[in-house]
Amino acid sequence: MRMLKAVTVAACLGAATANAGFMDAKDLNDLYEQQGPQESRTAAYTKLYGYVIGVHDLGDSILWCAPDGTRVAQLLKVVQNHVSAHPESWNNTASDEVSKALKAAWPCPQK
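Above: the chain's sequence. Below: its structure in token form.
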């Protein structure tokens, strides 16, 4: 089952890099800037939330190992910090940069 999940993750992330129509890291940064106060769940926040959670769920326990109890706000902050700190990567796909951020924050233990 774990192998099937790994193959699915690789296929999904690989497919995202093959099409320039998908979000890039600059798009993610723009969404962070548009999201407004947390109380007002804007369309930008909803898109950002869904995107980061989707990438997280695809790779968790395979590519990164976020601890149990990790909050969505933590995921969003880790990705926001990474994206804003690396404007040179804004032409990369958003999925690549979300993956880099999550791997750096929560690497899986070596087996």
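Helices lie at 2-17, 25-34, 43-59, 72-85, 94-105.
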